[in-house]
Amino acid sequence: MTSRPSDTVGPFAGWTTRRWLRAGVAGTLVVLAVLGSLGGWAVWRTSQITTSLVDRRSPALIESMRVEEALVNQETGIRGYGLSGRQDFLEPYAQGAADEKAALKRLRPLLRDDGRALADLADVEKLADAWQERIAQPISAAPPEAAVQITTARAAEGKAAFDALRRAMGRQQAHLQDERVAATRELRQAVTLRNWMCAVIAVVIALVAVLVFEALRRGVTGPLSGLGSAARDVARGRFDRSLVGTGPADLRQLASDVDSMRLRLVEELRFSEAARRLLDEQAEDLKRSNAELEQFAYVASHDLQEPLRKVSSFTQLLQRRYGGRLDAKADQYIGFAVDGANRMQTLINDLLAFSRVGRVHNDHQTVDLEELVSRTLDDLSMSVEETGAEITHDALPTVVGDATQLGMLWQNLLSNAIKFRSPDQPPRIHISAVCDEGVWELTVTDNGIGIAPEFQQKVFILFQRLHTKDAYPGTGIGLAMCKKVVEFHGGAIKIDPDYRLGTRVVFSLPAVAAAPAAPDRETQP
After folding, report:
1. Distance (Å) of CA 322 to CA 188, 312, 326
2. For the segment 364-383, what is each residue's pLDDT rounded down to a tens digit?
3. Nearest-angstrom CA–CA distance, 375 and 380
């Protein structure tokens, strides 16, 4: 079952998540750009009005008042000198003239862009120059007696001239004050506009954020959450639940693909369930067959013991009683019969021991491999002494297993290493143990004749021999028994294909407790 179509219709039905995101981001950026431009303009306008008010309007009014103050100081000094004739009245006049010049120097740049203010300033300067020329300069330059006479003669003219100057300065300051008030009002309006603009921008940004969140919830997170919930239900085993996709086209396609995968899994599960049932039946049949085969091997080997002992006993008795009394052919035939009976006895005993692995000996307990190897070397002491073998081993661990089976394992591995020795040098055998991720890897390395790569798997098969019984005695069961013992303990065994100086058998056993480090131990003949 595929997912149903989304409720997205019209020209937007085919839009993917990426396209929706691109459109949303582009629209948001446009809105933010417009709002940012308006906000920037409002801030710029407020800054411009503030700069004009702080840097021009207010300083211009202050400097105009300083000009007036300087002219008043000059008039006071001239009038005092002209009435009293005292020279100290000329000091305020001189200071006022200097202050007037400095104030006018600062005032002119502040009014350069204001035509009316410059006209007012020109009227003030014209009237001030006229008063200086007709009244102030003649009186200040005359001696005290003449200054008094000039003051008396020109008192009415001086008063009229200075009153006209005062009115001109009053008009100038009134105009500057009006401009300052207008600028202040304009600044207040600009600040209000800026604040409203910032508030609108904040509201729009919040609204855009809400819209983006809601769009993502409906178009992305919501459909993904629903798809994820349905997928988790399927993962928990509800394979009958179909996955319905909503939202953008790619999410609907994803839901359709996942639902197709669910349907494929349902088909695979049906097939695997049928295969599992068949495999369980076959495994049960195989288990029953193996059990019957093991029982048959045990019974056969056990029941063959008695007739074989009779055959062996009578052939040996025949050899002792009639050996040398018959012809050479008869002695040879009797020897063949005795040897065959003995080899059959050995083969049956080995087959009986092989059938008992995992069936008779199954007493799992803690086994110290150090002690077990020492006992095995004691059992092999005669072979070690006869061959001059040198057997060393690392510190060996303690494992959980069946001591009897593990003893057979070491017995076969070490006896094979001694048996298949090199004819031109005494056996050198080393046992090592390394723990890797909870598994002990043990190796038995010798310097014997080795095993060709093409036979390194074959040697673990029952009754497989690489040499004749005349060259190396045995039944071909030893390594097969080793493989069965190791696998019964949950491990694996193999021949190291990279070792060329003899044979290296590598097998693994599950780790239980690591033994403390100890120096290599050596057993010499």
Report:
1. 143, 15, 7
2. 678 888 888 888 888 888 88
3. 9
